[in-house]
Amino acid sequence: MTAPNDRRTLTSEEYRQAQDSAEFTELRKRFRSFVVPTTVAFLVWYFLYVLLSTYAPSFMETKVLGNINLGVLLGLGQFVTTFLITQLYVRHASRSMDPIAEDMRERLEQHEFAAGTTSEEARRG
Amino acid sequence: MADVLAAEETVGNPGINIAIFGVFVLITLYITFRASRTNRSATDYYAAGRTISATQNGLAISGDYLSAASFLGIAGAIAVFGYDGFLYSIGFLVAWLVALLLVAELMRNTARFTMADVLAFRMRQRPVRTAAAISTLVVSLFYLLAQMSGAGGLVTLLLGVKGEAAQALVVILVGALMIFYVLVGGMRGTTYVQVIKATLLLAGALVITVWVLAKYGFNPSSVLGGAADTAGAKVLDPGNQYGISNASKLDFVSLALALVLGTAGLPHVLMRFYTVPTAKDARRSVQWAIWLIGIFYLMSLVIGYGAGALVGPERILGAPGAVNAAAPLLAFELGGTVLLGIIAGVAFATILAVVAGLTITASASFAHDVYANVIKKGEVPPNGEIKVARITAIVIGAIAIGLGILALQAGLNIAFLVALAFAIAASANLPTILYSLFWKRFTTQGALWSIYGGLISSVVLIIFSPVVSGAAVNPATGKSTSMIQDVDFHWFPLNNPGLVSIPLAFVLGWLGTVLTKEKADGDKWAELEVRSLTGIGAEKAVQH
């Protein structure tokens, strides 16, 4: 526990060191490897649905169940995938991103990323 | 029931409607007063001390997001245009994935109060803050116009208020209440109003949904069949509203683009991420919001087709408030004056909560970005900023009241008006937000070109679109759907500018960056990236 007035703000140097660290590279990789392909996938699926509704109405009018046609079903499919992606992301983030982020945050608060910081200094923070 | 409509142009019992509305106002005023006790610092006023829980914030986000446009506009669009109205709800929902995956947590970790905090993080402060504040004000005012226009239509329908002076008085009353919530309650008071409203809205929608389903033996296919019987088989097929010509088809794609990219650029939505203690709470509040909003839109599908089946598009379009009257008319059809009164109360609560959220966002942006950081260069006592925010809230409230009174004349679907606000937000804000968070080389010039380019192009294209002038005259009403009658200066064929202005803003952001000699600040980039992903240095909750 450090008293507030003992606390230094982090220097640019420390942010640079943290950014270059292996654990940050891993954190960024885990974040981007989920977020980028997922974003591309849901945008493609959404626009596929929009373009089918616009330019292939007779396909979307195909009746599937009673009065429910393919268009309504694919539209409901958009709801399902949105809910699914939300749950998958929250799980991914709390399992594989939060632990690294928390660990790095603690170590940054202890100024362990400052260049030339001895372990002694880091402990005093 | 048709004779009730014809005779008085009022549905239900205005006394009951006003009584229910009055109860809501009293409860929220009490809560707002209680919330005001902890308003001491700017963090309290703008961000509720960052002590809102993820669940509360999720409800408040839904409360902010499920505006009159969602409640009245989407149900109406589905009732009248069927399948094409469905697109609104899908776009509005899928858009939340952009906010969840790319924006919410990173913004919570890096900003203090406003969108400009992130956009100006590694840029020259004053020009970028000014640009972001201008775009925040424009988007908020557009959104306010839509809400106030909804309030106008609703008042005519539900309170039996006749005559322009009397209607204007009601809008002034709504505006005054909203200013009061914001001035006294700040973000905490506003949040509580939104939580209560979201709960009422979801409960009200659930009652109508179950009721409609019960009428059709809990078989969704039969509800659709009922709508097809009353409104014609075409309501179940795509293309009723947008399938008419090649231009209208492109318009549909343009609308879809604006809807899906707009949400994560809406300043009042972004501001809600700062009210929670940590980025993890921001994530969980968006998770809550996605489920609540998604379930609500699923219900509005039933409500919309139910209104199409049980009320019918002709009566909806003939009622005051036109398309926006579908849900209230359905409530009256099902449960008579009492259910209508409840839905009326919910709709009023909706408008009040959303306009309060917009007002606090716009006033925060002006006070924090323009006054404190640009005019005073950061040299203001903390109380000075709140004082300016409160004065701004009054000014913006007054402007909203003025616009609301003007908007009483317009019969535009509010979902459609809100879609325009989304298009502006997606053009002016989202490209810069994404570039700032993810592109190392992004520079001040890129940010300015993207914000101003997106803002100006979207607004100019709207002004010269059929929305403002020159839309074909509807033979049924004898009126054009444009805001201005009998003049035609439009040259842009689409109602929604997104298809042009959003890609343009992305290109301008890139072009502005590569065409400048200025180098991105590597230190600031390191700080932004590390802070956004780890949460180090993020603003903490205020202990009272």
UniProtKB/TrEMBL annotation, chain A:
InterPro entries tied to this protein: DUF485
On the tree of life, the source organism's domain of life is: Bacteria
Residues crossing the lipid bilayer are 34-56, 68-90
| Record keywords | Membrane, Transmembrane, Transmembrane helix
One Pfam family linked to the record: DUF485
This protein is called: Uncharacterized membrane protein (DUF485 family)
TrEMBL record, chain B:
Answer yes or no on keyword Transmembrane helix. yes
Give the residue spans that cross the bilayer: 15-33, 59-80, 86-107, 128-145, 165-183, 195-214, 252-274, 286-307, 338-367, 388-408, 414-439, 451-473, 498-516
Taxonomically, which superkingdom?
Bacteria
Q: Provide a Gene Ontology MF annotation, just one.
A: symporter activity
The main place the protein resides is membrane
Q: Which residues form a coiled coil?
A: none
Q: Which family does it belong to?
A: Belongs to the sodium:solute symporter (SSF) (TC 2.A.21) family.
The protein's name: Cation/acetate symporter
The species this protein was found in = Petropleomorpha daqingensis
